[in-house]
Known about the structure:
Its cofactor is FAD. GO terms for molecular function: flavin adenine dinucleotide binding; N,N-dimethylaniline monooxygenase activity; NADP binding. The protein is 32% helix and 16% strand. By secondary structure, the chain is an alpha/beta fold. Strands 1, 2, 3, 4, 5, 6, 17 and 18 form an eight-stranded mixed sheet that branches. β13 (356-359) and β14 form a beta hairpin. The chain is globular, with a radius of gyration of 23 Å. Bound molecules: ligand NA7. Ligand NA7 binds next to α5.
Amino acid sequence: RSTAGTGEFDAVIIGAGFSGLYQLHLLRDRLGLSVRVLEQADGVGGTWYWNRYPGARCDSESHSYCYSFSPELYREWEWTERYPEQPEILRYLNWVTDRLDLRRDIAFDTRVTAARYDAAANRWQVTTEAGETLRATYLITAVGCLSTANVPKIPGLESFRGRWVHTGQWPHEGVDFSGKRVGQIGTGSTGIQAVPVIAAQAGHLTVFQRTANYSVPARNAPLDEGFKAWARENYEAIREAMHSTPNGHPFRIEDRSCWDVSEEERRRIYEAGWEKGGLQFRAAFRDLLLDRRANDTAAEFLKAKIREIVKDPETAAKLADIDHPYAAKRPPIDTDYFETYNRDNVTLVDVRSNPIECVTPDGIRLRDGTEYPLDIIVFATGFDAMTGPLLRLNITGRDGLALREAWAAGPRSYLGLQVAGFPNLFTVTGPGSPSVLCNMPVAIEQHAEWIADCIAAMRARGIARIEPRPEAVDRWVDHVNEAANATLLPQAGHSWYLGANVPGKPRVFMPYAGGMARYRQICAEVAAKGYEGFVLSD
Length: 538
Ligand code: NA7
């Protein structure tokens, strides 16, 4: 057993968000390992530390967006609204950190600049920005999937005299929009949350839309005492439901085809889903993500809603000009998003037909020469998802193999948890895992538990190293592709699931679309068969 003072640890975990915190708890408190968590921020929270933009809120419902491994923790915390807002999630994660006494093993303000595997010693050598070196037998990345901001390289940005901000790197002191001319680029889940809140404060808001998007009202509301008591009393059933659904949410996707019902009944069902609100809308039929024609019925319903809500027909047409299947890109949910376009101080600009040419000192100029004078530009332009946060760690595995080289043509993993050539490196929510298609804490708990069980099994059997066999990786990559191709998901050409939002990024469908419940079973079988597909060595 190693000690902290020497810089030698059993495990180093990178990141102190949902994943890193739970991984620390498991390895330290259940396995008794010496563990150090390295976190670049000055506090815990990960995604919820950085994403402080106006309107930032989780799209999973509160009673499911939390840890569920401990009935005590689950029952002690009280959520206030149907969907948790960013400050509340951050408070929750700080509460868990203190409740489990995790803070003492986390080094804050500590950015990892490189990690290298030393084969002779079987140790990972982790270097930080401050020049510190730590050594550990196991290296676990808990860096999140959406944590590397994608700021498009628009010519002239450096010349802008106003201020620009990315939603994922929001200033802690906030941004004062009052009376300001604000331009927002991006209409994904983030942009759709931010628009109504920014519009309510700004002098004028111009939204630059490249790809129109569906959105369903979240129907957020305070939680009443009855619901809170119900959630506490039904902890086991809620957890069981989250573990048995493909997407880790506590609601089930109806086991009926869109073609099992009459057109009128279908409309009634969609209407009910629209009223219920949020991600539950997509649970209406089992074939919405499998059959394009079935999907079209939902898509048409949602486009008609846009035209109904938005008063100016030209704006409505631009907003409803959506060509991807509903939910093939991550479906946003909103509070008054489309309604906001009825405000006098909001303008929608289509930058698909007339792209942004450059940023000038005074604002944004489009290809046809139109210029929009701005004081503030908000980039709601998303992230270099899944691979971005891992690649920037500069990880080098066995025989000098850099992760960047190993993944030059796109990420390749086994179960999203390990990479061939990188012994004892575990990637929580890595590409090839279902995490981003799932209610995140459910995926995270499964990953962290699988990793802890794996390390425990290795130690019990005196195994020093684990890494996947290349054939197992090939099979998993094929299976990930097969699972994606069985759905409509790859049909959304502009999706970050495919890496399509970052110029030059290889187009590979990264998440496992076979469902969380199935994935859980596969991982359990792999472990039960003595870690089938992995090379275990002394
Ligand atoms: P997303 O979903 O990647 O959305 C980013 C948006 O920004 C999207 O509308 C993009 O249009 C747009 N974008 C990106 N680059 C540009 C440029 N260069 N010009 C114009 N518009 C651009 O990120 P979010 O932060 O909203 O959501 C990420 C996830 O967080 C979300 O899916 C949830 O899981 C939580 P595009 O579609 O690429 O044409």
